[in-house]
C-alpha cells in the first residue's frame, strides 16, 4: 500500500476520533448544563427571528465548551430546521444524540451489508467484522439509554451528579466500542483494506 493510502487511512482515522471526541465532549459538558437548564428553563420568545437568534446562541454556547467547538456548531447547524428545534441546551444534546445514533446505525448496516455480501475476507477479518456488529449493537443500546436518561431526568430520584456520572459511563462505553471496532483493522495491509471499506 502506498504512503498516500496510509496517509488517507490515518487522516480518516483521525477524523473519526475527532468526531467521537467531539461527541464525548458535548455529551459530558452539556449534560450537566442541560439538566440545570431544563430545571430552570423559561418560555422562549415567540418571534421567529428571536427564536433563531436564541437557538443560535444556545448552540454556540453548548458547543463552545467542547474540544472541537467549530465542528460541533457546524454539525448541529447543518441539521435542517435546527434552530426551530433548539429551545434549550438539552435540545442540543438530544439533537446531537440523534445524529450520533444515525451515524452508528449507518455503520452497523454498512458492516452488516459487507458481511452479507460474502466478500473474500480472511477468517480474521470476518471475525473482526462480526465483533464490530456486536459492539455497534451494544453502542446503539448505550446511545438509546443516554437518550432515555435525558428524557427521564427531571423525574428520576437521583442527584444531578449521579445522573451526569451515569451519562458519562454510557457515552464512554459507546465511544470505546466504536474505536475498538475501527482500530481492530489497523494492523496489516489486508486489515487496512477492510478499514477503508468500513469508512
From TrEMBL:
CDD domains: PMEI-like_3. One of its GO terms (molecular function) is pectinesterase activity. Coiled coil: none annotated. Keywords: Disulfide bond, Glycoprotein, Signal. It holds the Pfam family PMEI. It is an enzyme of class 3 (hydrolase). Its EC number is 3.1.1.11. Residues 54-199 form the Pectinesterase inhibitor domain. InterPro entries: Invertase/methylesterase_inhib, Pectinesterase_inhib_dom, PME_Inhibitor. NCBIfam families: PME_inhib. In the C-terminal section; belongs to the pectinesterase family. This is pectinesterase.
